[in-house]
Input
Amino acid sequence: MPANLLDEPEIESEHKEYHWTLNFGPQHPATHTTLRLVLELDGERIVKATPDIGYLHSGFEKLGEHLNFNQYVTIVDRKNYISPPMNEVAWHNAVEKLLDIELTRRCQYIRVIIGELSRISDHLLCVGAAALDLGAFTAFLFCFNQRELINDVYEEMSGYRFHPGYTRVGGVLHDFNDRVITKVRAVIASLPKALLDTEKLVYRNKIFLNRTRGIGILTRDDALSLCSTGPIARASGVIYDLRKDEPYLAYPDFDFQVPYATEGDCYARFQVRLEEIYQSLKIVEQAIENLPSGPVNVPIAEKFPVPDKGTTYNSMEGLIQHFELIMPNRGMESPVNEVYAAIESPNGELGYYLVSDGSQTAWRTRTRPPSFINFQVFPHVIKDHLIADIGAILGSLNIIAAELDR
Amino acid sequence: MTEAATTDVDPHAGTLEALTKVLGGATLETVRFRDNLRVFLKSDQLLPALVALKSELAFQLIEIGGIDYLAYPGRASGSSRFEVHYVLLNQDSHERLILKVGVEESRPSLPSVVAHWIGADWMEREIFDMFGISFEGHPDLRRILMPEEFTAFPLRKDYPLRGRGERHNFPRLTRDES
Output
């Protein structure tokens, strides 16, 4: 491999003289986001695919070293922008593990609800957009319609539709009110029918089946060797879900299953994702019906949460706490230590390796981005497939370029 | 900094014992914090430890990341500037283990683990890209996120947040030259 992709001569040796090179992306409708593939082709058969990533690199990890624990939530939102609340939950999960904060029950439930809603939203986009690429336009519309309802929940709870920036150290921005709960119930009420419609259009669509079954097979051993996690690994028989196996937040309270498949092809990955939507819906239903009452943030005496407006303006403790957290030379203290904490994001294990130097700004915020690690699967499974299969395989891996490049 | 294990039964005891045996019996330097267990290794111990953990104890690699400890508070003088961590997971016992390896600034190099986990490929490339730590035996060690023309290592602590003007000085191709 030469040092620079641009230097690679098209014909390297004699036996390759029929191979030609095709540049796929970075701007291509089938990639959905900004990623580039350099394909070596024998006719229409792909001999070798070399992903060239970094087009969306924005230095998110470097920014994490300059923003405090609460400010950085706006940046993590933009990593996987398909399911922002899940990133927030993952980030503050790591921060709270570092600071040893025990969340209130209500906050744990709220974080489970927003996390599972974002998982539904992520899987809906993945399946819908893949169906769009593979000749089932209507399924895409059903899925996007549901995503709108989930965005309505985000809007109602935080004021923002796409990047809510909703969690805070030790709690959330605003408590759930009745209007938010009504919106969540609206999602629960309309989702099963939309899913049924989508399933009919996908599972009984001859074109979709022919283009996904037996395509891009990832074996169990390869999935382990490639460090892949989440639905991609579970579709290959690696049955590991952090919600079940290393429970965090309030997940032990809920009754749900971990869907898996053993085929490892694109179809299995879509199946696992669609089934996970049902399981997430079950969790959201249970959580919203049993939402505990009581405070949502940890007490301000613990010096971590940002007090709400009422407390800030009407009580001395709240005012002092707000001042302490907002002024740049003050703020919370953290142990001079480091911690790795991970959660199950829609695409796999989303972990943070957080190093703290004692201030409220991290020393290092290493992200374990599931898209980055899962994308390594692509060059392995695309071998000997046709160009048309790129869309199916990319769609089933659900690569989010902002998370891929950070 | 070191905290005693909170539970009576140490879930890591078996692993630590096996790891100590593989590495020749010397006591391993470990740190426990919250539910994390960090094991500090020398760079020549890394590969034997990882191979043993994979083949004998069924651990899988989850992630690799680098950290720059330049002027980190409380850092002992003489300790290496960089550290690379390997997060491993045993999917049967749900045990997690973090291996940490120090990397000297004068010789920023570690053995590559791509031969054992293909998934380490891009993660090692990212560390090379961001910190300038090279991995011996890596099949294709190139920059991954930054462009090839880039000369600095952006996640090092002595690299400023706003860069050194590289972004404005990239070579540009005009339409006539292309």
Observations:
- Chain A touches chain B through 50 residues (CB under 8 Å).
